[in-house]
Amino acid sequence: MFAAPLWAADDLEQLRLAAEYPVDGMPQGNLSGLARCGTDLLAVSDRVDNQLYRLTPIGGVLQAEAEIFHAPPPPPSNLPWGVRARSWAISMLRGNDLDFEGISCDASGNRYLVSEAHATVLQVPVSGEPNWMLLPENLVRQARASGMLLHFNALLEGVAVDPKGDRLWLAAERERRGLMVVHRQQSTWRCSGGCVIFSEAGTERPPAPMGSEQRMPRDFADVAYFDEKLFTLERLAHRVCRRKPSNGEVERCWSFAEEALADTRRYGVPFGVAEGLWVDADGAWIGLDNGGKARADGERRPIVWRFSTPKGGWSAK
């Protein structure tokens, strides 16, 4: 038994910042997902439907080089009419429709981009044209029956794929947050048993340095797969948690609140801005979607943090 809950930030080991990179070359900002494909660090923006970005370190910044692709029209969505209507309305204001919120890669270099607005995944292969994955028709229905994907702008927020490209996990953002998994069967994807492996309601306070007592919904901002484990990025709580891929059960969490909430790095919002996560043997990449807001030191560009591997590695008990 633990004397305090795993999500108590004061009791968690703190991740330590190894490097911080402003991002140049993403004029519309809104960095919403990160992935490492081979030697390339890639990012997506939820404001751009036809580009992903290759991030190259140059002189203390990450220079974004756009890779243009053309997605076919998305398949019919199983989201309810009211949610779809609000997504359509906001797309008219923002000038884009697909709302990419996460990116992942398999060992072959295929990219997987999750569309929040359409609750589906676009595969951008190494060669060939992008295609929408044939996800199970009952995926959204099961998620909604579990209390997820009920609210506009609280839908799919992250995607992770195993190296072989045989298993794909999706993260529902909040109210309720949760995890789903599908398995590849030739050219289609199926749920083995149920699609939903984890679902959780509830609220919590942000870390003490934010100075807020307001309780807000628990969230997932992204999900990553490394060394046979899932890792969730939990924006409000400013932490990364290791979870079992089979059922989403949390095994251990690490906080990045001390580094993120240093005086010069704070944004004037009552929640976190971390949106993208990639975990590897040498540490973790975390990308910030600041929505164009300046932080305390005046920096308005998107930011990518590189954190060192925690003490004992990611598999430490």
Describe the structure.
This protein is mainly β and 317 residues long. It has one domain (14-308): Neuraminidase (6 Propeller). It has helices at residues 81-94, 139-145, 257-260; strands spanning 13-14, 17-24, 31-37, 40-45, 51-58, 61-68, 100-105, 111-115, 120-124, 131-132, 156-161, 167-172, 177-185, 188-190, 196-200, 203-204, 216-217, 222-226, 229-234, 239-243, 250-255, 274-280, 283-288, 303-308. Strand 20 (239-243) and strand 21 form a beta hairpin.
Work out the helix count: 3
Structural class: mainly beta
Strand-and-helix sequence, N→C? EEEEEEHEEEEHEEEEEEEEEEEHEEE
User: What characterizes the major β-sheet?
Assistant: 8 strands, mixed
- The global form is globular
List the domain count as a whole number: 1
Compute the number of strand runs: 24
CATH class: Mainly Beta
- Give the N-to-C terminal Cα separation: 14 Å
The whole-number mean of residue pLDDT values reads 93
Helix content: under 10%
Strand percentage lies at 35-45%
C-alpha-based Rg, rounded: 18 Å
Side by side, the strands of the main sheet go 3-4-5-6-2-24-23-22
If you consult CATH, what is the topology?
Neuraminidase
